Amino acid sequence: MLDGYKSLTIKSNTEISTNIFEIKLEMDLEKEIKPGQFFMIRGWETNDPFLPRPISVADVEENTLTFLYEVRGRGTHIVSKLCKGDTLDILGPLGNGFSLKGAGKKAIVSGGIGIAPMVYLLKNLEGEIDFYAGFRSEVYWMDKVKEHSNFVFISTEDGSVCHKGFCIDEFDPTKYDEVLTCGPIPMMKRVIELCKGIVPVQVSMESKMACGIGACLGCTIETRDGMKRVCKEGPIFKGSEVIFNG
Amino acid sequence: MANAKVNICGIDFKNPVITASGTFGFGREYADYFDLSRLGGISSKGLTLNKKDGNKGIRLHETPSGLLNSIGLQNPGVDAFIEEELPFMKEQNTVILANVGGGSLEEYLKMIEKLNYTDIDMIELNISCPNVKSGGMAFGIRCVDAERVVKEVKTICKKPLIVKLSPNAENIGDMAESCVESGADALSLVNTFSGMAIDIYGRKPVFDNTIAGLSGPCIKPIALRMVYEVSKRVDVPIIGMGGIMDYKDAIEFIMAGADLIQIGSGNFINPTISLDIIDGIEDFMEKQGIRDLSEIKGIIGRENLC
C-alpha cells in the first residue's frame, strides 16, 4: 500500500527570485524518489482552492525534500505565505521520472521554472552533461547547476543576464547522445524538432491535474501511442511520442 | 460499532458509501492506497459501446470550491471493460455498478445485452453526461426522451437498473417520476451541472466544447435540495451525490432522503476520503444512538407528508 496525504513540517520557504520560491520540508521517511517525479501538494484546509497542486521534486537530501515553485494562482500564492514550522500536505512521489539509463554525453535544456526538476536530475545522471538554461529576465538556481555540469549556457529573453535570446540559440543536438528537457511548450516543441532524427529526447510534460494518481483522466495528452496520463505514464515522455496541440 | 449496512434492490451494501463514476476509474489506482473491500460499492468509469479517446484540449478547470471537467467519457469500451476490468473489480469484494452511457437508444441496448451476462451487480444508466454530444444527457433533459430510453432498457435489463439523473433536467422531480414510471429500480443524482469558463486573454472558452460539467462542494446545496425534492416524489431507493466531502455532508444527503451516497470529486482531494466518510458515518451513528440508517433516512420533510 502507498501512503495517502502526509503532513510535512516546513523548514524554510524562501523567495529566491521574483515569484519563485524554494520550499524545504522535513522528511523522515526514506522514500525512493526518482528525478522527474512529482508530488501533489496542499497547503490549506478549506475546500477553496479545491484541488491540490502537482509540483515536481527539485531536490532530495538527507531528511529534506525541496520543491521549487512559481506563484501562478491562488494555490501557489497560499503556499508561498507558509512559514517555517507550518505544515504542507503531500502525496507522492507520483509519476514515472526520467530514465537514467542512457549512456554518453547529455544535454539538459530548461526554460523558466522548468529548471525545477533538473538539479536533482543532474545529481543522479551519469556522464558528461551540458546545461542550457533559459529565463525571461532573472536567473536563479545556477550555483547548483554549475556544481554538477560540464558546461553551462544561460540566456535571458531581455538580455539582462548572459546571452540575450533563447537558451537553444546555441544548442547543437549533434553533440549529444541524449537530451532531457522541461519548460514552456514552445521551447520543448522546438527542442524536439531540433533533435528529430539526431538524438533521443526525454521531455517532462505539464498538465492540469485533479487526482494525480491516474483515475480522473483530466491530465491526459495525445501521443503517437494514443491518449496517455501525464500523472501516470508521464510526466516524462519520449520526445518522439508527444503530439503537441495548437 | 454501529451498523451502517444498507440493502437496496435486494443487494447488500456494507455501508452507504459508493465511489462515483468518472472519479475512481475501475478502482485500480485507488487499490494502491486502501483496501477497496471497505467500500459500500464502486461505480465504474462511464462506459460506451466502443472505445473512446475522450475530449481534446483542456479537460479540467478549477472553480471556487469546485471543478469543471470535460473528460468526454474516455473509456476502453464495454467489451474491454468486461474482459479486462470487471474481473479485477469483482475481486474487490464490494458492490460493482456498471455506469452505462450511450449516444443512441440502440447503443444503450447493445451494452445492456452484453452486461446482462456478466456478474456485474447493478446498472447505472447514465442519461446525464454533459461532455459528449452522445453522452446521454440528450436523454436526461426532457421527460419524454428519458421515458423512451428507460422503458426500452428496462425491458431487456436483467440487472437492477439505477438511472443517473442530470441536474440539468427541465424539472428534476418530474424527471424522477418519469424514470420510475418507466421502470427505474433506483435513481442516482446528481451528475454534473452544465457550466463554462472563459480565457479572457485568449478571448475563447477554456474548453474546446465550451460547456463542461461542474462538480464539487460548490454544487452541494443544490444537489441536496434536488435529492430532497426527488425523495418526496418517488418511492424507489435514491443514491445521492454532489460535493460530499465529509461524513456530515453524507448524513445531510441521507436525512434529505438518500439511501446511499456517492463520493465524486472528493476522491481527487484525498484518495482515502471514502474511508474517512465511512468511519465518520459509523461514529456519528454510534454517538447519536442510531442503530440503522433507515432511522434517519428522509427525516427532513417527512412530517409534511403525513
TrEMBL record, chain A:
Residues 3-100 form the FAD-binding FR-type domain. PROSITE patterns: FAD_FR. [2Fe-2S] cluster binds at residues 211, 216, 219, 231. One of its GO terms (biological process) is 'de novo' UMP biosynthetic process. Its cofactor is [2Fe-2S] cluster; FAD. FAD binds at residues 53-56, 75-76. Keywords: 2Fe-2S, Electron transport, FAD, Flavoprotein, Iron, Iron-sulfur, Metal-binding, Pyrimidine biosynthesis, Transport. Gene3D superfamilies: Dihydroorotate dehydrogenase, electron transfer subunit, Nucleotide-binding domain of ferredoxin-NADP reductase (FNR) module, Translation factors. Binds 1 [2Fe-2S] cluster per subunit. Pfam families: DHODB_Fe-S_bind. GO terms for molecular function: 2 iron, 2 sulfur cluster binding; electron transfer activity; flavin adenine dinucleotide binding; metal ion binding; oxidoreductase activity. The keyword Iron applies. The keyword Mitochondrion does not apply. Pathway: Pyrimidine metabolism; UMP biosynthesis via de novo pathway; orotate from (S)-dihydroorotate (NAD(+) route): step 1/1. Responsible for channeling the electrons from the oxidation of dihydroorotate from the FMN redox center in the PyrD type B subunit to the ultimate electron acceptor NAD(+). Heterotetramer of 2 PyrK and 2 PyrD type B subunits. Belongs to the PyrK family. PANTHER family: DIHYDROOROTATE DEHYDROGENASE B (NAD(+)), ELECTRON TRANSFER SUBUNIT (PTHR43513), DIHYDROOROTATE DEHYDROGENASE B (NAD(+)), ELECTRON TRANSFER SUBUNIT-RELATED (PTHR43513:SF3). This is Dihydroorotate dehydrogenase B (NAD(+)), electron transfer subunit. The gene is pyrK_1.
From TrEMBL, chain B:
One of its GO terms (biological process) is 'de novo' UMP biosynthetic process. It comes from the Bacteria. Residues 5-285 form the Dihydroorotate dehydrogenase catalytic domain. PROSITE patterns: DHODEHASE_2. Its main location: cytoplasm. It holds the Pfam family DHO_dh. It is found in: Cytoplasm. Gene3D superfamilies: Aldolase class I. GO terms for molecular function: dihydroorotate dehydrogenase activity. This is Dihydroorotate dehydrogenase. It comes from Tissierella creatinophila DSM 6911. The lineage of its organism: Bacteria, Bacillati, Bacillota, Tissierellia, Tissierellales.
